[in-house]
Amino acid sequence: MLANKKQMVYVILALIVLALIPTLMPGYKTSIATEILIFAILAMSVDIMAGYTGRTSLCHGAIFGVSTYVVLHYVTVIGGSVWMGALLGVLAAMALTMVFAALAIRTSGVYFILLTLALGMIVWGVCLRWTSVTGGENGIRGSVATEWLLNKQNLYYFTAICFAVVTFGMWKFVNSPFGLTLKGIRDSESRMRTLGYNVPLHLFIGFIVSGFFAGVAGALYAFFNSFVSPSTVALAQSVEGLLMAIVGGVGTLFGAIIGSILIISLENFVSLYTDRWLMIMGFLFIFTMIFAPTGFLGAARNFIKSREKR
Amino acid sequence: MSMTIFQLLNGATFAALLFVVASGFTLIFGLMRIVNLAHGALYLFGGYLGLTVANLTGNFFLAGIGAAIGIALIGLIIDFGLLRFVRGSELRQVLLTLGVAFVLNDLALVLWGGDTFSIQVPAFLDGPAEFGDVTYPIYRLFVLLVGIVIFISLGLMITKTRLGALIRAGVDDAETVSAMGVDIRRVFIYTFMLGSALAGLGGVMGGAFLTLYPTADSEILVYSLAVVIIGGRGSLVGAAVGSLLVAMLSTFGQVWFPELAYFVIFGPMAILLAFRPLGLFGKVA
Does pLDDT of B275 surpass 80? Predict the structure, then answer.
C-alpha cells in the first residue's frame, strides 16, 4: 500500500512537470521537449523487446518510420483525414511488425540482431527506391496536423497526453502476467517451455505490442516533423532508439525516458556546433559498450551500491 | 536471349563481389562469433582508400593492395584496441561494432565528402568484350575471375594450411583448440585482419563498377547479411551459394520490379529461416 502511495506521488509529480514544461521552457525548447517525448515512446518500445524479452532489435526505427511514411502519404498525397492517417500509420506499423515477428521470433541473441537489422534495412532500401510512393530520397513533405495542432504548444500538450497514456499502457503491460511471462522467457526459455508456456506465441504477441508503441511514436513524429525521408527509417533511427534504452538501462522501461532526455538534448546541443552527430553517436555507443553496458543509470546504481557496501 | 545472358553475367559478377565481401564477414562470424556490423563500413572505407591510392599512383592494383592492407590494419585496431574489452559478451561485441560502423562512415564523409566516386580501372580492363551478339564490360568479367580465384585460394587455405586447420578447429570448438596449446587469440586476430582485408579489397573491386557513395556501406552490409543468413555461419561454400542466390535474385529483381528489387531478397531469407534457421550450410554451435 505504501509503495502504491509512493508511486502515486511520483506519477503526480511527473504529470505536473509534463504540464509545466511549455511555461518553464517556452519557444523552441518546447519543441525539443515534444521530440524527447516522442523518442521516449520509441525507446520504451525498444526496451519492451530488449529488456523484457531479451531480444535486442535493430528494426524499430523502420517500424517507427513506416508509420510516419503512411501518415504523411495518406494525408498529403491521398488527401485523407489526419486521424484516419494516424490510425492507418499505427496499423501499418503493426502489420510490418507482424511480418518481422513471424520471421525473427524463432531466433535469439546475435541472430535476432542480425535478422532485425537486415529486415529494417530492407525497409530502408524499399523507401529509397520506391520513388512513386515514397518520393525516394526527397521524401514526403507536408503538414499533416489539424489547425489546432499547428500551434507548437498545443502539439506539445497533445504529445504529452499521448505519452502519458502510452507510458501507462506500457507499464501496465510489462507488469501484467503476460509481461512477467516475457521476463520469464528472457531469463530461461527452456524453463518456460517446460512449464507449458507457448514461448513463440508470447514472443510474437510481445513483439507486436512493442511494434504498436513504436508505430504510435512514428505517427506522432509525422505531426511533429511534417516531413519523412529514408533517413527516418534508416538504421541510425533504430540505433538511436536502442542507445536511449541502453543508456537509461535496459529492462527498466522508465530508464528509456531518461535516455531519450539525455540523447535528444545532447543531439540538439551538439548540432549547434557540428554536423558530426553520427560520429559522436558511434563513439557514445562504443564507450557505453565498454564502460557502462548496463547503462549510465545502471552504472550509477552499481557505483552507489558498492559505496554503500563499504 | 542475349539480354538474359547479359543479366546472368551481371548476376554472376555481382555474386563474385558479394562473395569477396561476405566471405570475410562469415569467417569472422564463424570463428569468433562476432557479427562485425562495421563490415559494410570497412568495405566503403576500403573503396575510398583505394580511390586515394589510385589517384596518387595511377595504379589500380596498388589501390587494391593498399586498401586490403589499410583495412586489415583498421581491423587490427578494432579487434585488438576495442573488442578485447568486451570479450565474452556477444551482445556487447555486436553493438560495439555497430558504433564503429557509424564512426567510420561519418569519418569517410569528412575525409572524402558526399560525392559519388568511381575508381578508374586500367586501360586493358576497360571497354567491352564481345562474344557473338553479346557485348560485356571486360572489367566485370575480371571481377568474376578475382572472385573465383579468391574462392579457390580461401578454400585451399582453409583445407590445406595450418592456419586453415586452426580456423576450422576454432569454428567447431575454440576452447579445445586453446586447451591443446594453440594461441587461439593470435588465430582470432589473423582471421579478423583477413576478413577485414577482404572487405577492403571488395571496396576497391566494387568501387570501380558500383561506384562509392555515403550509403554504399549499408547496401553491401544488407547483402552480406542476407548471404550469411542464407549460407550459414562460417561456411565458405555457404557464402558462395548465398552470394549467387542473392546476386541473381537482386539482378533479376531489378529487371522485373525495378522499384522493389530490395524486397526480392526477402523471399529466400524468409523461406530459409522457416525451415533452416541456421542457413543452408550452418552447423549448430
Answer: no
Q: Using a CB-CB distance cutoff of 8 angstroms, which residues of chain A are in contact with residue B35?
A: 110, 113-114
% of chain B at pLDDT higher than 70 = 97
Residues 170-229 of B with CB under 8 A from A: 215, 218-219, 221-222, 225-226, 228-229
Three-class HEC string of chain B = CHHHHHHHHHHHHHHHHHHHHHHHHHHHHHHHCCCCCCHHHHHHHHHHHHHHHHHHHCCHHHHHHHHHHHHHHHHHHHHHHHHHHHCCCHHHHHHHHHHHHHHHHHHHHHHHCCCCECCCCCHHHCCEEEECCEEEEHHHHHHHHHHHHHHHHHHHHHHHCHHHHHHHHHHHHHHHHHHCCCCHHHHHHHHHHHHHHHHHHHHHHHHCCCCECCCHHHHHHHHHHHHHHHHCCCCHHHHHHHHHHHHHHHHHHHHHCHHHHHHHCHHHHHHHHHHCCCCCCCCCC
What does the pLDDT average to over A80-105?
92
**Range B134-159 average pLDDT:** 91
CA angle, residues A106, B275, A209, in degrees to nearest 5? 30
CB neighbours (10 Å) of residue B31?
25
Task: State the pLDDT at residue B110.
Answer: 93
Mean pLDDT of A40-65: 94
User: Least CA distance to A133: which residue of chain B?
Assistant: B259
Per-residue pLDDT for A3 more than 50? yes
Q: Which residues of A touch B92 (CB under 8 A)?
A: 289-290, 293
For residues B134-143, b (16+ Cβ closer than 10 Å) or e, as one string? bebbebbbbb
- Which of B86, B105, B260 lies nearest to residue A290, judging by beta carbons? B86
Alpha helices in A27-151 (DSSP H): 28-52, 60-72, 82-104, 109-129, 131-134, 147-150
Q: Is B80 on the interface with A (CB under 8 A)?
A: no
CB contact burial A197-214 (16+ within 10 A = b; e otherwise): bebeebbbbbbbbbbbbb
pLDDT tens for residues A104-121? 888 888 888 888 888 888
Q: Does B115 touch chain A (CB under 8 A)?
A: no
Partner-chain residue, chosen from A129, A278, A289, that has the shortest CB–CB distance to B106? A278
* pLDDT over threshold 60, residue A62: yes
Answer yes or no: are the C-beta atoms of A30 and A156 closer than 8 Å. yes
Domain positions in chain B are 2-214
Minimum-distance CB partner of B99 among A113, A117, A289: A289
Tens of pLDDT, residues A241-282: 999 999 888 888 888 999 999 999 999 999 888 889 889 999
Q: Measured between CB atoms, does B94 come within 8 Å of chain A?
A: yes
Neighbours of A219 (CB within 10 A): 29
CB contact under 8 A, A285 and B99: yes
Candidate from B90, B259, B266 with C-beta closest to A122: B266
